[in-house]
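Support reply, case 0932

Customer input (verbatim):
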Amino acid sequence: MSDIAVLGAGMHPWGKWGRSFVEYGRAAARTALADAGLGWPDVDSVVGADTVRCGYPGYVAGATFAQALGWQGARVTSVYAACASGAQAVSTARAQILAGLADVVLVVGADAAPKGFFAPAGGERPDDPDWLRFRVLGATNPAYFALYARRRMALYGDTVDDFAQVKVKNAAAGALNPLARYRKAVSSEDVASSPVVADPLRLLDICATSDGGAALVLSSMEFARRHGHPDPVRVRAVSTVTPTYPKAVLDLPDIATDSATAVSPSPYSFRASIARAAYEEAGIGPEDLSLAEVYDLSTALELEWYEDIGLCGPGEGAKLVREGVTALGGRVPVNTSGGLGSFGEAVPAQAIAQVCELTWQLRGTAGSRQVPGARVGMTANQGLFGHGSAVVAVR
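Our regenerated output:
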């Protein structure tokens, strides 16, 4: 059995606070430790999810958080995988625990994001695909999201109202979450009247950038049982797979499609392969899910994730929203936290925050957004440059 225990979960509220990301991570870590009933000296290892925007400490996030909490000799690791950094951090912590290198690992990520949509890194960087997609293609994040939305409209007949209903659903959940940045219900009319950013997507279709932090205290199952946690939430699988060539659909900033050798196309898209690997490792299928947290960078991309994680077939995502399947009270609620539409992006923290939400739901402590009887949850997102990210948690 490769399960590890989630003993504690903690977050610093998302927003625009104007302070150091270290402060957000330290607050989230302390909350997670208190939730676990452990002290900082009990931690054997710290795995920090890096931010690369916030000056020198961002490049050594694991040690930065350990120093902020007070040096106590714990081993330290730092990981960077863009939006998948949190899942990579969980994967690293899990490997350390299963290898017997640590009994208790603190996973923490935090960010202080710039105002507005993300821009390319500074300077002339012709060897950087991310810089090239901004400067050569003009493909800002919203433009890329809009291309995906247009593709869905052309292939499947999705409408702007279908996209708007995703925002309505997530805003309703976010309004119930005290940690969310945006806690106001919206209507489809509100979405339709918000400014166009990249046609067909409007401002309320696209997630913001935010400050925030999230942390988890993970342990071996033996440690959990010895310390009063006989039936904890457990991480059962972590998927961090990469894409395969050839690729029929561009996945910016990786604008290549063909491999250097002749190979048959994979039957699965990159995002579908992320979920598939997690299901195989966990020994479950999409029919077993009680809920999911997916990466709603835009409302249209959330619909794509429904299909990628197997909740429905290709082109059927909008139908699930129309029928209320993925709303609170539906058959498989998706983004019960409110999603990125309610939180915004705090990049190194967000995959960790997704696991926090699963933890609270599987414990039955999510309050007014609780999914009754939740037993199995999945997170799914994608990091820049082909970083897969999915975590399966069970109770």
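We compared this against your earlier run and they match. Two observations from our side: DSSP finds 13 helices and eleven strands in the chain. The longest helix spans residues 347-363. Please reopen the case if you see a mismatch on your end.
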